[in-house]
Amino acid sequence: MNYKYNVGCSIENLKGVRDFIRGALKEHDVAELQISEMVLALDEMCSNLMIHAHQCNPDDLFELHIKVDKGSPVVFEIIDDGNAFDINQFSEPALGNLVHEKRKGGLGIRLVKSIMDKIEYQHSSGKNICRLTKKVQFK
Amino acid sequence: MIHIKRLQEDGADVIALIGEIDASSSIELDLAIAKSVGEGFNKILIDCSSLEYISSAGLGVFMSYIEEFKDKNIKMVLFGMNEKVANTFEILGLYELLTIGKDKVQAKKLINEL
User: Fold this and answer.
1) Overall domain count for chain A
2) Numbered residues of chain A with Cβ closer than 8 Å to any chain B Cβ
3) How many CA atoms lie within 13 A of B22 on its CB side?
4) Closest chain A residue to B64 measured between Cα atoms?
5) Which one has a higher pLDDT value, A5 or A82?
6) Rounded to a whole number, what is the distance in Å from the CA of B93 to chain A's nearest CA?
7) Domain total for chain B?
8) Residue B55, CB half-sphere, CA atoms under 13 Å: how many?
């Protein structure tokens, strides 16, 4: 089953994003803890996009797609026309360095990479597609 | 949306987090901790028993205080996390950097041992 959500780039919309994802995955009886992990990973991806690619401009929109079918990995797609930031190219700093530098960033990418199985980027007809995949357990 | 309550118990500042902390609300957590430090507390307990959700923005706030607290000899202990919130700290290995107790009783014990 496919779900689609349009999001304006205001960080105030992150709660709506989380509710949308939670709702979709709950309909398919995905294990609770895995739902919360994927909600977190997508929150991190969407907030990065809103803040770094769109400077929190609420008039800039992107699309979030979810494909969930029993027995298959869950696939999320973030479709956007801003500047793509490939997190696979970003080596996250060591935790100790984050503490030392008092940096508040860098943790989100670490979370996304820990939670999702696969993160792929694709560019076609002026759009950036970031596809995140995770194998899940269905109740 | 996060609602933050502060109360003082046995010389410690107890900061209770109620709701969700994400990129839009992490500033509230930062301000609450800064206020506690500004008022001179050297024992800070973070009550997470009504914290429903935390993203990296909130985790980063805790991380950003670690060095300052070491320098100023301020102790901080978090407690009362639900399974999902605890899992977020665990994924990042933050149990090694922060002191986390099961409940308030254990947290008070831990903060006196730090």
Assistant:
1) 1
2) 11-12, 14-15, 18, 32-33, 36-37, 39-40, 43-44, 47, 50-51, 95, 98-100, 102-108, 110-111, 114-115
3) 27
4) A102
5) A5
6) 9
7) 1
8) 31
The pair of three-digit structure tokens given for residue B93, joined into one six-digit string: 């290995």
For residue A20, what is the enclosing H or E element?
helix A14-27
Residue A16, pLDDT > 90, answer yes
SS (H, E, C) A79-120: EECCCCCCHHHCCCCCHHHHHHCCCCCCHHHHHHHHHCCEEE
pLDDT of residue A105: 63
Q: Which residue out of B1, B20, B22 would a mutagenesis test of the A interface target, given it has the greatest number of A Cβ atoms within 10 Å?
A: B22
Q: What count of residues does chain A have?
A: 139
Decide: residue B11, CB within 10 A, 0-12 exposed, 13-18 middle, 19+ buried: exposed
DSSP 8-state symbol, B91: H
Contact A15 B20 (CB under 8 A): yes
Whether the model pTM is above 0.90 = yes
Question: Does A139 reside within a domain?
Answer: no
Host domain of residue A12: 2-134
Residue among B67, B84, B94 minimizing CB distance to A36: B84
